[in-house]
Amino acid sequence: MTPIFPDLDGQSVFITGGGSGIGAALTEGFLRQGAKVAFVQRSDATPFCDTMEAATGRRPHAMRCDITDTPALQASLAQAAEVNGPVTVLVNNAANDKRHTTEEVTEDFWDWMQAINLKCYFFACQAVIPGMRAAGGGAIINVSSISYMMGNAGYPAYTTANGAITAMTRSLAREFGPDRIRVNALMPGWVLTQKQLDMWAKPEDLAAHLDKMCLKEHLVPEDIVGGMLFLASRASKSMTGQAMVIDGGVVTTG
């Protein structure tokens, strides 16, 4: 039931963490629009690419990359541009919401959390700007989370990075708007990926979260696809510097 955005056909799309969880759903969503998709992740994505090719008739270009390694990330973006043409849609999606308390955070852990949840977003944006400018415009979507909007406890280094993503999004939108480059943030609620189900989705926590939702149905990765495609397409051509929430109404009710 996902709508078709004709202008996404043929676009060069780059997704961080595009082979699992929300990222995998996004990769499939863009492929079904006719986009040329490249993505990075740490592990081998060959089986996933095989599945996508069989399901959509299009094969994504997968690269192994540790996104906390800035030169490696920049090299992956350059490779994607060589394979698919200059990146015109960037989706900064990969993140790590490892649970932790303030007392146990070390300097090394803090730096790692900012590297994987914030720094890589900035340098990916920086890398695609010249190509987008030459192409006459582009769309950058930074995936954050409602966790910082709710003031959630349990992962303060993560929520700090999430808040900074929104601030960065607004500044880049202002800086590169004259180049017709739109920069928006997408803020999912609790999306029940396999990782979430395996590690943190206890029945009592699921029930408590559902009680906060206006729409009484837990989110799955596919629920994020429509909003992402909208922000990437010309259907949202007058939107930039915005934070779009897809959470079933949690932020509304607290």
From TrEMBL:
The keyword Oxidoreductase applies. SUPFAM superfamilies: NAD(P)-binding Rossmann-fold domains. Keywords: Oxidoreductase. Residues 11-203 form the Ketoreductase domain. GO terms for molecular function: oxidoreductase activity, acting on the CH-OH group of donors, NAD or NADP as acceptor. InterPro entries: KR_dom, NAD(P)-bd_dom_sf, SDR_fam. Belongs to the short-chain dehydrogenases/reductases (SDR) family. This is NAD(P)-dependent dehydrogenase (Short-subunit alcohol dehydrogenase family).
